[in-house]
Write a structure and sequence with these properties.
- InterPro entries: Cyt_B5-like_heme/steroid-bd, Cyt_B5-like_heme/steroid_sf, Cyt_B5_heme-BS, Cytochrome_b5.
- The chain has 135 residues and is an alpha+beta fold.
- The protein contains seven helices and four strands.
- A four-stranded mixed beta sheet has the order 1-4-3-2.
- The radius of gyration is 23 Å and the shape is globular.
- The structure holds protoporphyrin IX containing FE.
- The site of protoporphyrin IX containing FE has 19 residues, from helix 3, helix 4 and helix 5.
Length: 135
């Protein structure tokens, strides 16, 4: 079972992806195998690739067996990444903000040798925060 945010479903499982999926009731559904057999046609299925198809699915008043079929095609669930972050600790919040910001662009250009002058070597690279992850 994979866990993705809605944005990731959109980015990784859209029409043109290897494994198109849509979401029904928070479940990520692989369209591929079933789309050719779908009594309502392949096109309507692909139209929702990468999107939330819950309303469309419900509005067509699918039968119980159609609903069971949906469950067979589940490959994962949608989680909103921001919900996963523990908010119990102020430090964590701060690190998370850094993570979603621009931390990755710290180039380690601290000249150790050559010029010899260590004057302004403010070693900001000690920043442990980069180890923090959103998972
Ligand atoms: C994995 C998801 C889906 C499954 C397993 C599925 C399955 C089925 C099945 C078994 C039927 C035959 C009638 C029934 O038993 O209810 C059906 C009909 C239909 N489905 Fe889906 N469906 C899915 C998603 C969708 C979506 C997203 C749409 C978009 C609108 C859609 C549109 C339709 C339509 C229009 C029909 C009626 C076809 C007709 O009677 O001519 N289905 N579907």
């Amino acid at each position: 079972m994979i866990k993705l945010s809605m944005k990731q479903v959109q980015a990784q499982h859209g029409r043109k992806s290897k494994q198109p999926c849509f979401v029904i009731s928070g479940r990520i559904i692989a369209i591929g195998k079933f789309k050719d057999e779908h009594p309502g046609g392949e096109d309507v299925m692909m139209e929702y690739a990468g999107l939330d198809a819950t309303e469309a699915f419900e509005s067509m008043r699918h039968s119980e067996s159609a609903k069971r079929k949906v469950l067979e095609l589940v490959i994962g669930e949608v989680v909103e990444m921001s919900d996963q972050v523990s908010s119990s600790d102020d430090d964590e919040k701060r690190l998370t903000n850094i993570n979603t910001g621009t931390t990755s662009v710290q180039s380690p250009k601290t000249p150790r040798s050559s010029s010899g002058s260590r004057n302004n070597n403010s070693e900001q690279d000690h920043d442990e925060s980069r180890k923090c992850s959103l998972q």
